[in-house]
Amino acid sequence: MASFAAVDDMGLAIAPPSLVFTTEQRQLWNNHSVEQLHALELKLRTDCDEKREELRQLVGLKYRDLIQSADSIVHMKDIAFGALQNLQSTYCVHCACA
After folding, report:
1. How many structural domains is the chain composed of?
2. Per-residue b/e over 38-76, b at no fewer than 16 CB within 10 Å?
3. What are the pLDDT digits (tens) for 42-96?
4. Model-level pTM?
5. Within 10 A of 32 (CB to CB), how many other CB atoms are there?
6. Residue 62 within any structural domain of the chain
7. Are residues 14 and 7 in contact, defined by beta-carbon separation less than 8 angstroms?
8. Which residues contact 93 (CB under 8 A, 6 or more apart)?
9. Domain annotation covers residue 1
10. Enclosing domain of residue 22
């Protein structure tokens, strides 16, 4: 049984917010049977689970793309560093720096 923490001006118990129905919730209860509401809840939960999985996969793909991009940047840095070393060694051979 629900316990009510407050009383209004007329001495009537005030339901806590978790027990107060919104207009939309009240309309659902008035327009649908309990079985229909259970079916709707199941559908909404299933849809939510599917969206959660879709989002998880999308985030995973984006994370892999990010890692691949970072690896490509490191590879480009290594190539540029190697090219710089080759240029420096070529320059030093021609000018007798070494």
Report:
1. 1
2. eeeeeeeeeeeeeeeeeeeeeeeeeeeeeeeeeeeeeee
3. 999 999 999 999 999 999 999 999 999 999 999 999 999 999 998 888 877 667 5
4. 0.51
5. 13
6. yes
7. yes
8. none
9. no
10. 6-95
